[in-house]
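Researcher: Here's my situation. A collaborator sent me these components and asked whether they could plausibly form a single complex. I don't have experimental data yet, so a predicted model of the whole assembly would be a useful starting point for our discussion.
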Amino acid sequence: MSEHKVTGLGAYFSVFLALMVLTAGTVWAAFTDLGAWNDIVAMAIALTKASLVVLIFMQVRFASRMAKITVVAGFLWLAILFGITLSDYFSRGFLG
Amino acid sequence: MSTAQVGDRTQPVKQRQPGLKPWGMAHHFNSFAQQQEASYFGMWLFLVQEIMFFGGLFTAYIVYRTAHPFAFALGSRTLDIQLGAINTAVLIGSSLTMALAVWAAQTGRRKAIVVFILLTILLGGVFLGIKTVEYSHKWHEHHVPGPDFQWEGSQGNRVHMFFNLYFLMTGLHALHMIVGMGILAVAAVWAWRGAFTPDNHNLIEGLGLYWHFVDIVWIFLFPLLYLLGRNVG
């Protein structure tokens, strides 16, 4: 935020509309049988929505490099938490 | 008026001594930009630990749902998808009004800050109201975890676990909203008194980050709790 950039109202309303459309899309996709892809589609839509909120509503796109690294580190550590925990649970069956 | 006070920018800054920082800047900062950067960075540090806090619950959800997908689908189908979808829209709307409150603070619109904060609180109230209706349905259906839990079909213990996670995750999310609405109410009063300027509105910006974070948590909770498992027979 070091340069005091102000996000325009057009960007906020566009993001709001996109979030609404994606919400409708995820409900629609949930009732369509895509097999194993249902989970992937739902999470891909949620990740897209979250990215829009982080980048535009939370103004991370205008943030300093240090703040951006902090944000990325937060989600990276979340991925590590998921990754290591699940690699344990999902591999227990391998041992028979 | 005795309220010619902290926030009144129409009064000239009184120089008590040479080198005094301008009104609204803490003494340990060199510029407003530096102060704002510190506040923004600090708020994100707080949110990163919130990510880990909720992350533990999401991990538990993934582990249990992967082990018992059928039971989780059974539990998920008892939730009201319409109320869940409406609440998602309401919360996204509240994120928009929160973003507009930050915009109003950045551009120095005092009354607009107050209006947008009050709208955010109102939409947050609508969300919690709908959540209360959902909780009360679950209460009457004996789906609230505990000794009163009843499940007619198969896999009762596993469905019980789904509802444990449902109430823990949505409850913790609702608690975050209640805390946020309380601080927003205080911020609305301060904004009305003129405490925030384009140079110094870190509380509004920090609250915005917090509110959007709570929105993001719901963006993941909605598909995980309400939607997954609707497709299977």
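Model: Some features of this prediction you could bring to your collaborator: The radius of gyration of chain B is 22 Å. Residues 156-192 of chain B form the longest helix (37 residues).
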